[in-house]
Q: What sequence folds into this?
């Protein structure tokens, strides 16, 4: 079973994708969402900006992450079938990724995809220690969010 399913928008630039180092890892499935794409998201935990904060109770379902710029996400969500369990990340998390868009504003709570994935897995109580190894802004992200990335009830380190 895939622990994480990543659906990447077909126009997302793979060279700039923070999740690219994870392609081919066991437990991860990467799909490309083109115009005719459809995915049955029933039984998955969909990480986004709606729902309750993700936590250990969500660890029994595969995590579904939509990977694309913020303007593509509504269209990508329309390509999902079924009823995923919607979850979000705590409001206090801050990205370390330098934003460069001159055309579109990112939401204040927006994180790089690898940051969001790392945070979700940590909060679910699942292993995530090596996910940020290839991420250029790893140390800054962890420093900015120290204390916010602990699974409720755990005392482990990042």
A:
């Amino acid at each position: 079973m895939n622990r994480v399913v990543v659906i990447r928008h077909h126009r997302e630039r793979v060279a700039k994708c923070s999740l690219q180092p994870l392609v081919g890892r066991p437990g991860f499935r990467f799909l490309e969402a083109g115009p005719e794409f459809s995915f049955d998201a029933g039984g998955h935990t969909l990480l986004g900006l709606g729902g309750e904060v993700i936590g250990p109770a969500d660890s029994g379902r595969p995590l579904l992450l939509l990977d694309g710029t913020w303007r593509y996400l509504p269209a990508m969500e329309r390509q999902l079938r079924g009823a995923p369990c919607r979850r979000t990340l705590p409001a206090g998390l801050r990205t370390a990724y330098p934003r460069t868009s001159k055309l579109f504003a990112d939401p204040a709570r927006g994180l790089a995809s690898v940051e969001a994935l790392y945070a979700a897995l940590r909060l679910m109580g699942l292993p995530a220690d090596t996910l940020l190894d290839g991420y250029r802004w790893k140390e800054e992200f962890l420093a900015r969010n120290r204390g916010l990335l602990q699974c409720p009830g755990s005392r482990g380190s990042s």
